[in-house]
Write a structure and sequence with these properties.
Length: 315
Amino acid sequence: MKNTSLETEPSNKAEIGAMTAALYGNSFKSMHPAVQATGFRTHGLRYRTLSHSNHARVAEDFLVNSRCHRNDTETQLSIQNYFLDPGIEMLALVGKREGSILGEVRLPEGVELRRGLGEAIARRRSRRIYTGDPIELRYLATILRGAGSLTGHVTVELLDGRERRLHFRAAPSGGGLYPIEIHFASLKIADLDRGLYRYDPIRDVVSRTGGETEVARILKAFTVPDELISITQANLLILLVGHPWQSMRKYGARGLRYVFIEAGAIAENIHLVTEGVGYGSVDCASVIDDEVHEALSFDGLFKTLLHTIVIGYPG
């Protein structure tokens, strides 16, 4: 009688070998009693010795300490404050930044997407090789607006009768706090000088924050080989920069989860719009955070790099 314990059967020896290797690799953990005396420990070794080592488990500590608990009065009161007039006044100011002394560029009208949402989702791939051909500024404008432009507003009346306008953006944000700024390095954009810029969704402009020297430092911070991601031939690098306490003031440690969720939402918008206009993009985490922080004059804590995306004309 045929064995029905497995729903599917491997079709060839290669699949059998892969399944066997995965089974052994995930079913057994060898003991390493002397791991505490080992100076060089891979992440795989750390995982295999979780039960008898005392090294810091920072990521897991974050998961535990950012959990939601019932009857958390401190968090409930912190959230409640944002529904009072002072909190609403603060929300109305979210995203308003002073202009750059290095100059600003007003974005032109964007372009129509060549592909609808369904097709963009189906065709989206991580595209790592680029030709180096420049792209027009209007394509950049379309990508930035898809990432985080203003898409609507609501008017809220205060207790004293005054009104305040709260804005909505293209990507969702926990509590409408929008703690993430969209910065980018312009590498090969027609009608936009090579340099660092910040997108201002309130005024729909890009403010210059750095020049060629800062761009060179940002590029140097990437550790991925050009053969894997041709960053030197890319058109721009998106830098998602977070203000964690802008969310944590309301939600505590759990607010940092919302910041990461928002970064993911913005990144997905960027990938879909980039695909929709016919260009390529890829997420990249092979970057030395502190070198980027130094190039941008960020402290790396209250204002920190969260994520980077490479965009270019696909080769």
